[in-house]
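If your schedule permits, I should be very grateful for your opinion on a structural question. I have a record of one protein: its chain in single-letter code and its fold written as discrete structure tokens. Kindly check, if you would, that the fold set down in the tokens agrees with what the sequence suggests. I remain grateful for any guidance, and I place the record below:

***
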Amino acid sequence: MGDPAHLKRIALLHLGRIHDETPALRARLARRGIASELVPLPPLAARERAADGPRAAGDDDWSRFDLVTVRDCRGSHQHPDFLPRIRALAQQLGSLGVPLANPLAVIEAGNAKNDYLPRLAREGVALIPSRWLPRGWCGSLVELLEDGGWQEAVLKPAIGSKSWHTYRVRREGARLTITAADGSQPVAAGAVDGWLAALTRHGEVCLQPFLSAVCREGEFSAVMLGGRFSHAVAKTVAAGGWIAHERFGGTNTLRQASVAERRWAAAIEERLRRRFGVLPYARIDGIRDGAGDLLLLECELVIPRLFLAEGEAFDRYAEVLLGPASTRMAW
């Protein structure tokens, strides 16, 4: 990730919105003599022009940066060309010798849950049972629930964020009730299968049993920085709700992780490390099953909220960005 002694300027790529944590992070970097600049992710056409001919006026001179990060590219799930744009930029940065803080392989795999989650399951990680519906899937949602033995389930896209297109499904015989994250009901009971077919036209969809523990205990989020446990947060659900997200009334509270919870997160991080090497950051989210065991919900590897304020972790995160030497510091 570059030599910390020579790292002077970092580009923070974005898509029009940034994390609430970013201003405080930039201030911490500035105190260390590191300038950071918010840079829009260039459109694909601009990258092609840059590769094929002279630089157009206003094109970024990427050589002036020592490092580029993608963590502020919020809303990437609503940009179908996000990965092509990142790939094109990564190629240009590579030719200039400017590193991405996030390896391209991590960005590509972490962008879609249907890439890394099934692989982790094959490696023995205990996941929430999942049925992946491919793009263009058509069929009976009732039959899927019956096959799984599930009275309630959650539907969500393989590529998404902030509970976008996430729905709770309740089965009463052959009747289904669909509830969106905001509490609305987007489809009539008799039109569910056509609605789901329309949903899968946009991409792969995941169906999982609904774990009622989320309403009592919320989600457990372990934040790893530079391959090491940094802090943990309990993400709770609002009264009467079912989504552990502040957008829907939930709260995020610093949690003293138990030894078992740290081991759980470290074991998952170790499997990610085998595939990708040490990651600059990762957020590992879990929900407890009926027996109280943590099941992996997802790993946020590309554009996660890291709860840096809750964990008082701005300096630790800055150290990770500054390079491998600093990540070996004792925290």
About this structure: The first strand starts at residue 9 and ends at 14.
